[in-house]
Sequence to fold (131 residues):
Amino acid sequence: MTGLEDLVAAAMSAPPERREEALRLLQGQLPKPEAYLTLSELARRLGVDRGTLRRWRVPGNDLGGYRRYRFSEVEAYFKSEAFQRRQAALRAEGRDARALARFQFGDGLPRPGRRQIQLNPAGINHGQAHD
Fold:
């Protein structure tokens, strides 16, 4: 067999979805390369904040020392089990933070940096602050 016959044989033995792709490549119909996006461009396309994408740990590629993202790879990540596990972990962290805030402040609203006033047993404030 020649090299071309080997390629055609391999393409025909591939699963159906890969077979069509392989045959298109053999016919010279190359797919258009997908553009790499910056984090800001990706956030704009998805309609979310850049910090959210970082928190979600969206997979990217290092190109010349810069992080770049392919939209199709990010979409695939959103459909993956890894992303579902990450979302569950973030939800649990949020629940823990809200529970701690309810315990500390009594109303569940987070107040970072807020000073807590320490009351004496009679409930009278003597100006003593407690952080």
The chain has a mean pLDDT of 78. The chain has two domains: 1-31, 32-106.
